[in-house]
Amino acid sequence: MFLADYFKDINSFEYLEEYKNVDKKYAEEILKKVFVLDKEITSIVI
């Protein structure tokens, strides 16, 4: 994770500072962007 973040120009140690900025409203906004009903799929694993 640290190596991937480095190449994305992200300081991994800043995550801890950003956690306190996450609230319910922000989390719901992200969930609405990520979980789009139009892109739903069903998988059956046997």
From the N-terminal CA to the C-terminal CA, the straight-line distance is 31 Å
Regions with pLDDT < 50 over 5+ consecutive residues?
A: none
What structural class should be given to the helix and strand makeup? mainly alpha
**Helix proportion of residues, in percent?**
40-55%
Count of individual beta strands: 0
User: How much strand?
Assistant: under 5%
C-alpha Rg, in Å? 16 Å
Mean pLDDT: 87
Shape: flat
Q: Element order, helices and strands?
A: HHH
Structure in words:
This protein is an all-alpha fold and 46 residues long. The protein has three helices and no strands. Helix content is 48%, strand content 0%. The mean pLDDT is 87.
Structure characteristics:
mainly alpha; 46 residues; single chain; 48% helix
Topology (elements, then pairings):
Layout: H1 2-7, H2 15-19, H3 24-34
Short description:
The chain is an all-alpha fold.
